[in-house]
Amino acid sequence: MCVTCGCSDEANVTLTNMETGVKTAIEEHHHTHTLPDGTVITHSHHHQEKEHHQTHSHTLTEGTVVTHTHTSSTINSPQIHAQIHAKTISLEEKLLQKNDLIAAQNRGWFKGRNVLALNLVSSPGSGKTTLLTRTIKDLKDNLSISVIEGDQETANDAQKIRETGCKVVQINTGTGCHLEASMIERGYQELKPEPNSILMIENVGNLVCPALFDLGEYAKVAILSVTEGEDKPIKYPHMFRESKVMILTKIDLLPYVPFDLNLCLEYAKQVNPKIEIFQVSSLTGEGLSNWYNWLKQTLKVETF
Amino acid sequence: MHELGITHNIVAIVIENAQGLTVKRVTVEIGQLSAIMPDAIRFCFDICCQGTILDGTTLEIIEIPGLGKCRHCGTRIPLSQPFGQCYNCGSIELEIIQGQELKIKEMEVEEICV
Ligand SMILES: Nc1nc2c(ncn2[C@@H]2O[C@H](COP(=O)(O)OP(=O)(O)OP(=O)(O)O)[C@@H](O)[C@H]2O)c(=O)[nH]1
Ligand SMILES: [Zn+2]
Ligand SMILES: [Zn+2]
Ligand SMILES: [Zn+2]
Ligand SMILES: [Zn+2]
Ligand SMILES: [Zn+2]
Questions:
Q1: In this structure, is residue A13 part of a structural domain?
Q2: A292 pLDDT more than 90
Q3: Is A262 exposed, middle or buried (0-12, 13-18, 19+ CB in 10 A)?
Q4: Residue A291 lies in a domain
C-alpha cells in the first residue's frame, strides 16, 4: 500500500461497456514489459556463454516489448557485455516513460480522427458528473460527445451519463487513484468515438496523482467548486498548472459560503498565468454558455 | 499507484538492466517540484525489492531543488513550489528549468568478469 495515497499495486482495474454491460479486466500499469519473466532473473554468475540461454523481456525506446531467449550470440553483443562488466551502469531512464509513450500514441489516435479529448480532474464531489450530464444534454443537438468514466468503484456515474443517451464506458481503478494512458487506450478502443467529436474523460476524484499522468488528452480541465475553499490552486499547484482550463463551479452557492472569489482567481493565475477560467453553475446554468463556446471553438480550431 | 507504482517501475527497470547481476546501489533523481515524495519511495522500495535480486540493495535518492527562470527578465528564481514570483521584475511568468526530474540515474553492480 502506498503511504501517500493509499493505493495498492494489486488494483483490479476493470472496464465496463455501459451498452452491453460486459465487464473486462484491464491489466494494470503495463509493468510486465520490464520484468524478466519467471526464473529468468537468476542469471548465472559464471561467465560461460552456454549459460546465457535465458528468456528476457526488453522495452525498446519506442515502447515495443520484445521477449526473446538469449543465445550466446545475442548476449555476446559488445554493448550488452560492456554494460555487464562495468561497475556503474548509467541509466537516465525516465520513470513515467511507458505511460508517456502510450499517451503519445493516444494523442495521435485522437488527432487522426479529429477527436477532442478532455481530461476532467478535481477533488471528489466537486461536480464533474453533474457538469458533464448537463453539458451533454445542452449540446446534444450540435455536438457528439462520448465519455470515459473513471472511478475507484461503482458504475453509478457512468449510469447517470448513460441516461443522457450518450456513449460511455466505465473504468474502475479499484484501489488506484488515477487513470493511466493504457486504460484510456482500452477505453476508446471499446467506445470508438466518432470523428469530429468530443471525448470527455472523467478522472478519479483526486487532486494529486492525475496531474502526473498524461493520458494523451488535448487539455486537462480542473473543476473547483466554491465549497472547497479559495486556496485550492496554491495548495495543489501541480494540478492547476497542468490544466489549460479551470471551471469554478457551484457559483449559485456563493451567497452562502465564505469564499473569496477574487482571491481564488488570483491564486489560479499565480500558479498558471495562462489558465482559462469559467465560472459556472451546473444547477442554474449560469455561465455555461462560455464553457460551451470554448468547447465548440476548440473543437473547430483543433480539428479543422 | 503513484509512489508505489513508481517504485515498482524503478525495481523492474533495474532488474532488466542488471541482467542477473547483484545490484549494490541504485541512484534515483527526484526533483523537488515533481509531486513525488522521496520518503514514500524509500518506504515502498524495500517492499518492492523483497524476493527479487534487489533484496538488500541500497537506494540513493538525489533530490534536485526547484529552479525557475523569469520569462521577462531572465532572472533565475529558486522555487519550493511549482510557481512563484520574480524578485527582480515581479513577473509570475516563470519557466521551470529544474526540479521536475524523475529518473533512474545509475546503478552499481558487482563485477564478475575478469
Ligand atoms: N448547488 C450546486 N450543486 C452542485 C453543482 N454541481 C454539482 N452539484 C452537486 O454536488 C454534488 C456532487 O456532484 P457530482 O457531479 O457527483 O461530483 P463529481 O465530481 O462527479 O463526484 P465524484 O465523481 O464522486 O468525484 C451533487 O450532490 C451535485 O448535485 C452546482 O453547480 N451547484
Ligand atoms: Zn556474460
Ligand atoms: Zn463523478
Ligand atoms: Zn496516488
Ligand atoms: Zn504497480
Ligand atoms: Zn523577472
A1: no
A2: yes
A3: exposed
A4: yes
The confidence score (pLDDT) of residue A50 equals 37
For residue A140, give how far its alpha carbon lies from the nearest alpha carbon of chain B (Å): 36
Evaluate if residue A71 carries a pLDDT over 50.
Answer: no
Contacts of B5 (CB under 8 A, 6+ apart): A2, A7, A9, A29
pTM of the predicted structure, to 2 decimals: 0.81
The reply to whether ligand 1 has any atom less than 6 angstroms from the CB of A254 is: no
Sequence-ordered list of residues with C-beta below 8 angstroms from that of A161, at least 6 positions apart, any chain:
A18, A129, A132, A133, A136, A147, A149, A168
Query: Domain of A238?
Result: 97-302
A288 within domain boundaries: yes
CA of A176 to the centre of ligand 5 (A): 9
Fold of B2-65+98-109: hypothetical protein PF0899 fold (3.30.2320)
The whole-angstrom separation of Cα A214 and Cα A94 is: 14
Give the per-residue pLDDT at A72. 42
Using a 6 Å cutoff on CB, does residue A125 contact ligand 1?
yes
Q: Does residue A124 belong to any structural domain of this protein? A: yes
Q: Which CATH number goes with the domain that contains A221?
A: 3.40.50.300
Q: Please give the tally of structural domains in chain A.
A: 1
In tens, the pLDDT along A9-40 reads: 445 788 888 888 888 887 543 333 333 333 22
Chain A residues close to B8, C-beta within 8 Å: 9, 29, 31
Which residue is closest to A1 within chain B, CA to CA?
Answer: B4
